[in-house]
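Thread: "does anyone have the structure for this chain?"

Original post by V.I.:
We have the sequence but no experimental structure in hand. Need at least a predicted one for the grant figures.
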Amino acid sequence: VAEVQELYRISRAAQMPGVQASIDANRQNTPTNAGATGRFAGSIPGFPERFDVTTYSASLGLSWELDFWGRLRDGTRAAVHEYLATRADMEAARTGVITETVATYLEIAETDHRLATARETARLLAERSDVTRDRYERGLASSFELFRIQQSLSDARAAVPLLESALHDARTRLAVLAGGFPDDLERLLPDAPRLPDAPLPIPAGLPSELLAGRPDLVAAANRMEAARRRAGVARADRLPRLSLTASGGTQSSELGDLVSTDQRFGLAAASLLGPVFNSGARRAAARAATRRYEQAVLAYDRVVLTAFREVSAALVALDRQRERLGL
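Reply from O.Q.:
Generated one for you, tokens below.
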């Protein structure tokens, strides 16, 4: 997000005039019998043999591109939407971490409860196995009954290590989500977690516009708009650019006269630059940008359809779980 903010500032700065300051010192020592003065230097009495000129200059330069076709404006707006899309991605990532943290926390609660149940089941089956073996030795129970109890005991004991491994895996995942180590969970989870008693009811008649707040939808919408603006930039690149340039300052052969207003100079220029022939490269770039915009539109459609599907599936699953809870 911070990077995209800086990219926006770069795009924004292109719309503003640019000012450059320069201070120069030049010295020229050239013979007079060469160049433009070579033809007449020898025929003029007292003409110097060499030119020794030192010049100091200080100037300010101003340049500004007039954005007639909206190229710079579209670039800046595209940067804005890219920033909004990136910020939405950050919110989606934060929401994903929160969602996974809650799910992992509940998974720990469930696994911890299942582990306690499995240990208690193994203990009770061990007692029942001892009782059944005693009854079998006295002829009061069949070998099939003893075998069945022992098999159930073996299954219960075998389930305990698997649940212990699953619990450790869930706890380490929660520690990573919390930005710490497994030992830190003793501080995060001082007491055994407890599952909620019942899911909260979802009221009927909620507007579908609520989905517009989903971070993935916000990101997709802003990427689509950024692609549209980039297509506008590519189209404007095929048109001429008008730029204004100006500079002014002072110039003198003596350093002390550099601050005198009598030594001032100025320059102003305007330029119109337009493509004439580039083998269709700019036209192809504009079409490519349009195709990227079409891809962004399709991606946005997919995100919208996925959002409706996920909400529908979640509502049905919640309703079925509520039915199970009432049984």
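V.I.: this helps a lot. The beta strands are 18-31, 50-66, 241-252, 264-273.
O.Q.: and The two ends are 49 Å apart (CA to CA).
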